[in-house]
């Protein structure tokens, strides 16, 4: 029986995570801690005896570097990899590059909280989580899921909000539940799927 394996990994800590800045589609690199988190994620996957047939990531450096570092730990540096902006982080629009405290000072604590934590209210010029789902989910259904169902062991290195979109579907979460779902940086989540694409098992390798 083929192993319908799907591993989702949020990128390691970025320079802007460290500085408490809204990042979105901006393209900072990983911090030293982020590099260490990515390598550790690869080591966790290796300890589980996992290898992969195909990889997907976003067009942003922090996700690509995380994937490269994980694959290096697994001895799979030449793995077939597809990059697509459908997996990019949520676009924070006018908030991108701003310190979160400065944004609160400008727009108010409550408004910034709504933009960050509501399901369907986008920041000015940006995307809501609902908007992010609208571009990420079709890509998952059309490109990623068929690989998994064919028995190709698949790893996806992406971002907190684009991965929430996938987790929402995989774990059948409501908009309210997905908003509360936290994803640690560099923490692999290992899914095995049934033939009908539902989840047979899930293991979070955080910590």
TrEMBL record:
Identify the enzyme class.
Answer: isomerase
Q: Which reaction does it catalyse?
A: (2R)-2-phosphoglycerate = (2R)-3-phosphoglycerate
Q: Which residues make up the binding site for substrate?
A: 10-17, 23-24, 62, 89-92, 100, 116-117, 160-161
Q: Which GO terms describe its molecular function?
A: phosphoglycerate mutase activity
Catalytic residue list: 11, 89
Instruction: List the CDD domains.
Output: HP_PGM_like
SUPFAM superfamilies cross-referenced by the UniProt entry: Phosphoglycerate mutase-like
Q: Describe the task this protein carries out.
A: Catalyzes the interconversion of 2-phosphoglycerate and 3-phosphoglycerate.
For this chain, the family text in UniProt reads: Belongs to the phosphoglycerate mutase family. BPG-dependent PGAM subfamily.
HAMAP family named in the record: PGAM_GpmA
Protein name per the record = 2,3-bisphosphoglycerate-dependent phosphoglycerate mutase
């Amino acid at each position: 029986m083929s192993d319908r394996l799907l591993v989702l990994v949020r990128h390691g800590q970025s320079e802007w995570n460290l500085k408490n800045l809204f990042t979105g589609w901006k393209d900072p690199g990983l911090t030293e801690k982020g590099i260490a988190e990515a390598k550790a994620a690869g080591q966790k996957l290796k300890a589980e005896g996992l290898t992969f047939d195909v990889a997907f990531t976003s067009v942003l450096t922090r996700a690509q570097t995380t994937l490269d570092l994980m694959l290096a730990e697994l001895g799979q540096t030449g793995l077939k990899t597809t990059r697509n902006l459908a997996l990019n982080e949520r676009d924070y629009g006018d908030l991108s590059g701003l310190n979160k405290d400065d944004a609160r000072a400008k727009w108010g604590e409550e408004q910034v909280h709504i933009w960050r934590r509501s399901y369907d209210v986008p920041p000015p010029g940006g995307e809501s989580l609902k908007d992010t789902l609208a571009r990420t989910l079709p890509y998952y259904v059309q490109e990623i899921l068929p690989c998994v169902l064919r028995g190709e062991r698949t790893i996806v290195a992406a971002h907190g909000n684009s991965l929430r979109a996938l987790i929402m579907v995989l774990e059948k979460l409501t908009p309210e539940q997905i908003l509360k779902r936290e994803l640690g940086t560099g923490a692999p989540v290992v899914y095995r799927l049934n033939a009908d694409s539902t989840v047979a098992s899930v293991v979070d390798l955080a910590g």
